[in-house]
Amino acid sequence: MAADRRANWLKGVLDLAVLASLRHGESYGYELAKALDEAGLGQIKGGTLYPVLNRLEEAGLVEAEYRAAERGPGRRYYRLTDAGRTALTERGASWLDFHEAVRALLKGGEA
Amino acid sequence: MNERYFEELADGLRRLGVAEDRIGPLVGELSGHLAETGADPEDEFGPAVRFAAEFAEGAGAEAAAGGPAADAERWVWSADASVDQEMMNRFGAQGWEIERVDHLGRFVSRRDLASPTQWEYRRDVVGRRDRAAHAEELAPDGWEPCGHWLFLAYSKRPLAAVAGPAADIATPAGRPGRSYYFTRGLWAPLAVLVASLALSGILLATAFATDSGGSTVRGMLFGLPVGLLLGAVGAFLAYRRKRAEYARASRRSNDGP
Question: Are B97 and B111 in contact (CB under 8 A)?
């Protein structure tokens, strides 16, 4: 149940989390999934992550480049565009507002 | 194993109108991901059909294909009245939901790609004026109207209404190979009609060719109304007979034990 709830929360914020993970430089799918896991968002399956990356790319918030690897299959590297950086700032602020509101509500309930 | 998964995924994406130059790199990217995680493709990405639907949703497939929403596939099909119920329920079990019956009597259907579920159907004989009352009468059992054709009223309900989550479909069957299911019950009268028209045409042509036309026209003035009247009476009787027959059949199948 707890996992279901977290999965539902994640749906609303995953695109923002992906944008944030790309803030300091480019990355590829598997590495992004690891970074999100390490950040405490839990293990994100490829079936969830790649459609999000695709939507962000279609919206022009990230751009991707395929690079061949020395060994094994190549990787597709994603990086933020200017529009992506702007979206991250605006949506990030709006998420934090929301987060503060929920937090205040929960804390208020405790008191 | 992986190859089969990616083939299925590529097929799904193509069907949803995703451009070919997006499919190749995606498959490359996902193969790379699998190589690094060592995971099973179905565990990592979910069923190929569902993944294709989710991916296509963001890929602007709708605009590219100029077609329906990418979260569903569409199919227009038809069957004559002697097999339509059987076919509707067969395809309903595969997740096809009939949205309406078009003016040619074809079933316009959709299937949800992300979470297909089973549908069941029923057919009743209902007069035009009684359609609303009929729908109201069936509504408490979860039925809703999904189209009309002459005196036939079709209704659908999601099987989940009676079977719960068991009605969900994990791996939907492929798209049916045929879209038209007509039996001898339809072909035989049609063949008779075409043969009669051809025969009348030949007789008329012969009459005009051998005669100056005067007596043929006089003959037609008498023959045409008589023929039309006889034809109309025949058609009306056949319509009434079929209507009664289908009404009996639907009473048997719907009110049976």
Answer: yes
Beta bridge partners of B147: B154
User: Phi first, then psi: what are they for B236, rounded to 5°?
Assistant: -65, -45
The per-residue pLDDT for range B18-33, each reduced to its tens digit, is 888 888 888 989 999 9
List the one residue out of B123, B102, B99 whose CA is nearest residue B110. B99
Coil, strand, or helix at residue A110? helix
- Within its chain, how far is the Cα of B22 from the centroid? 31
Edge to edge, what strands does the sheet with A27-28 contain?
Answer: A27-28, A75-80, A62-67
Nearest to B174 by CA among B26, B40, B8: B8
CA proximity to B97, closest of B5, B161, B33, B54: B161
pLDDT number for residue B68: 40
Q: Is the Cβ–Cβ distance between B110 and B97 less than 8 Å?
A: yes
DSSP E strands: which ranges in chain A? 27-28, 62-67, 75-80
**3-class DSSP state for residue B117?**
strand
Residue scoring higher pLDDT (B27 or B1): B27
Contact with chain B for residue A76, Cβ under 8 A: yes
Statement: residue A100 has pLDDT above 80: yes
Measured between CA atoms, how close is A82 to chain B, in angstroms? 20
Are the beta carbons of B253 and B85 closer than 8 angstroms?
yes
Question: The pTM is what?
Answer: 0.49
Q: What DSSP designation does A48 have? A: H
The label of the residue with tokens 């991707």 reads A64
As beta bridge partners, residue B152 has B125, B149
How far apart are the CA of B47 and the nearest CA of chain A, in angstroms?
A: 9
Q: CA B37 → CA A27, A36, A91, B43, B213, distances in Å?
A: 16, 15, 31, 11, 87
Closest CA to B24 of B10, B40, B44, B5: B10
In this complex, do A47 and B45 lie within 8 Å of one another by their Cβ atoms? yes
Here the ipTM equals 0.85
Question: Six-digit token pair at A74?
Answer: 């190549």
Residue in this structure with the two tokens 């590297």, named with its chain if needed: A77
**CB of B72 within 8 A of CB of B89?**
no
Mark yes or no for CB contact A46/B44 under 8 Å: yes
Instruction: With beta carbons less than 8 A apart as the criterion, state whether B97 and B119 touch.
Output: yes
